Amino acid sequence: MENNKILEINNLSVEFLSDGSVVRAVNGVSFSLKKGETLGIVGESGSGKSVTLNTILRLTESPSAVMRGEILYNGRDIFRMRKSELFKIRGKEITMIFQEPMTSLNPVLKIGGQIAETIYLHEHVGKEEANNRVLELLKQVELPNAGKRMDDYPHQLSGGMRQRVMIAMALACKPQILLADEPTTALDVTIQAQILALLRKLKREYDMSMILVTHDMGVIAEIAERVIVFYGGCVAEDAPTLELFNNPLHPYTRKLFGCIPRIDTQPNRLSVIEGNVPDPARLPEGCLFHPRCDRAAGRCRKEVPPLSEISPGHFAACHFSVH
Amino acid sequence: MGRYIARRLLIAIPTVIGVFLAVYFIIRLIPGDPAAIMLGAKATDEQIEMFRRQQGLDEPLSVQLGIALRNFMTGDLGVSIVSKRPVMALILERLPRTVELALWGIGLASVTGVILGVTAAVFRGRWPDYLITGASTLGMSLPSFYIALMLLTLFAVQLRWIPVIAVEGPGVSRFKTLFAPVLTMVIGNSALTLRTTRSSILEIMRENFIKTARAKGLDEWAVLFRHALKDAAIPIITVIGYNLAGCFGGAIIIETVFSRPGIGLLLIDAVNARDYAVVQGTSAFISIALIAVNLLTDAVYGLVDPRIRVEAAGG
Amino acid sequence: MRHGLCGLFGKILPMIAALAILSGCAGNRASDSIAAASTSPSAGEPVQSASENSGETEAPEQVLKIARDFEGASFDPAAATTANDYMFAPMVFERLLTYDSDFIIQPMLAEEWAVSEDRLAYTFKLRKGVQFHRGYGELTSGDVKFSFERLADPELNAASNYANLGVENMASIETPDNYTVVITLKEEDPNFLIKTATYYGNIVSQKAFEDIGGQKFGVMPVGTGPFECVEGAILGERNEVIRFEDYWGEKALLDRMTFQLVSEPGTMFNAFEAGEVDLINITDYDKLEQYRSQPEKYNIYMVTSRSMLYVGNNMALEPFTDARVREAMFYAIDRDSLINDFYLGFPNPARSILPSTSMFSIDDYWDPEYDLEKAKRLLAEAGFPNGFTTEFYCPNDSISMGPATIIQSQLASAGINAQLQTVDFGVFLDKVRAGEAPLWLLFNDTNIVPDNTLSRYTSEYYPGSNWSGIMDADYDAAVKAALSETDESKRAALYADAQRKLIDMKAVYTVCDSEGYNVTAAKVKGFDFSADLTIRFDKVYITE
Which domains are seen in chain A, by residue range? Predict the structure, then answer.
């Protein structure tokens, strides 16, 4: 193991018991995050990417969830940690921002207080110092009129502003890793760009590592240094961004790119990927993508293709990607 | 907020007048002559006539209404036919007892209900939840008459901890006179609060901001108390307000069993005696109390949920 | 913990606590506890000798604790309509005269009295030195005049007493000197003296009434009796009286009596059995049996009241217009069964249309027969071989519904299908007074002078208090004759005649005297009743 891997996920699987049937949201996922890296995870809805991210902090823990595998943070397995240790990691070493800024903040508490809560939780500071830090954070996330906004309630802020507040909250204790679950999906495009730019800037200033989950290739292109493509709860492809865009190996990835409308051409129709994403309760045998793949052959129906390094740093899970 | 309250108060005035008028007509529509009832079955026709004349009961309805309305506007609630005492004095005499029971009863019932509801929510699906929810069903289904008599028998007759007749005196503190009635109210009234608290909290815990709170590193208790409870408050406050409002007329059974006559009993006795002025005055009073409780509930909403505050000020 | 808990509880709980404390203070002001007994500022008599007179000075205070299940309205005697209204403040007032168990007039506040030749002017000589409570001075003739004349005041609710005392019939009340009262009537009234001896004629202090004012007087009135009222009474709920140390006659033995309204019978029995209360009145015969079987713990006193159980029909309504139908109804009622099985044999069967404790009541004419066969035969004769359906009204209180149900089933055996309508008292009165109740049942009482009970069934009172629709010229004449007769020797016979005629109508069926039962703890002694059926509290004392 190289010692600049700050987060290592080995063979993670997450199953949910639902109405008597087993839903396999995540199936044997393995990847790692290097210190200082910005990793993007992309995939369609239901591909297991959000579940994976939430599982890193064990936020998916519930009586109906079964989690297997390893999540190593600086060598320590998060699954094995006691609750007290986990609580020290959450909000301080690894923090997270979420998809719905409209509902992810507590509507009855002032935003200044919600941010300060994190600080009080993890550090011994007085009221005045905490407030100063909150003010600083709000300025850093470029919230206009930060001083007055501290005493506002979430409903008094727009979506974009709320997301900034969430980011401020996540950065309050200078975390090592920032997890971002579709942070811009619910925002309009112009705000999106601002938030992404902000994230890039802060990552540099705080010297953090970041995992960003999205379904939007454009966001990947903007911000991710490396990309993992999810399909059906598995990793389909894992490569540096530029490499992936220039040379997608997995048929699914190729099709994805094919779906993106290009500004410089004028197609008659938008191309689609035939079929639907697999139902996590009834996954197909063999390669999960084979029902929708043009290149599917007999082997694909029976054998699950392992994730193999096709070229240095470029992994793919397809029988035919090895040329 | 001030304008909001002012507006509500303004609307309250026609409401109370409306109640007064409605009661005025309804009580007179019920068959039964207050003079005959008051004087009893052996009264002669002449005695009844004289009584009616003296009380102004033989005036045409419109005249009586005019007088009653005019008096009502100036705060004169009239005089009881039965006891000849001013209605206001009767109400004020009974009021402290009703208010005392209401505040202590609902106060403790609400605290109990919330605590048990939170516990049930936290232990959802496990035996504490079943135990608490089951007990609350029992509390809701047992008639309060039964609960009151059981408690009286247990604490006053068997254990001799409290007197049977709730009168203060040497050796009998106010606490002892309130103990059983308040306990009856707690058993009967906490159930609804409990259920509401439980379901409200369970709903809140599914919200996104709870996940955010956990992601910050808060343990489950902190998540519950610092985040969930305040957000779950609105339906709970509604139920508490509803229970409180119900006390003003609805504690009649407790008043009877424990010999603590209050406003509720005053009203019922007056209806039976067709004591018009007392019925009107007490009904108007109860409606004012209800309006006040509703206003208070709304004000508390504003305290708890800032979104409501802003709406009120804006609209 | 900054937010959640503090937010909800931190703001709401202190508010609730503050309101509770406020209400507690208000509650204190309304005073649930009776203030310590106030001794009346007597005119010169030291308190020492008074308590020595009553017995041991070191003995614990003699307090009688009483619970009642009916409310009193006002203690002002002008507003009282029945003897029950005095239950919360007994023996506080006195009258000019009183009577014994043979209805012979006896002196009370008046030592001597005389009637003029023309039987219109009554002269009363007052006892000297009679004191009013709370230092309001000596009884004078002015107080008598005031007490009677004020019954005309509409503010006082006194319609009942005004009529019963006959104030309308008083041409004038003169007070030639402080101790002489002359009342001149407009028309002769043979019952006048008895009337002044009844509670209608209670004497109050004029000075006190003018001083205190109408309403306060109703809460803490001033009379001349052996007991006086103290502060802190809550009308209709609780009251307290203490011994009047300056009473003109023999002082009471008790130091204090407390009265408490308890409307729930279960609570009352529990309190009594736990020793919190020493005297209660009950109508529950099972409880009565229970207490009767423990004579070492409880004393039981029966009070024969002037109340009776009446069942009546309305002979102005079909089919009761037919005398045979009415007769059949009477044959169908099994009085003995009702008294012995339902009432466990406690009450006495009624001997007349009037209670046995009323003046002029006869006891040799009313003895109804129970004969189901005769009833059915009479019905068939009247054209109802299969019976008929009718309505049977009774008030929905606990004492009326029991006997009503039993009588209903008895009537049903004869074929009279009486549909029971248990209604609220006000509705009941409406129905019967409108003449719309073919059958009715009620416990009703009669004054000691039974005039009202007899005259209510005369034709002029239908519809109204003549619930049975009796319109018989003969009966009207008989009642008029009895009520207007001034010759003492003839009155009894005329009253008897009227009663017999009324009984013959077969429209009103009297079942039994209604007794009240007072039960006391064994330690309460000296219990007795006066001729007007009230308790002689002044003779009661407690042994420990």
Answer: 5-93+175-316 (3.40.50.300), 105-174 (no CATH)
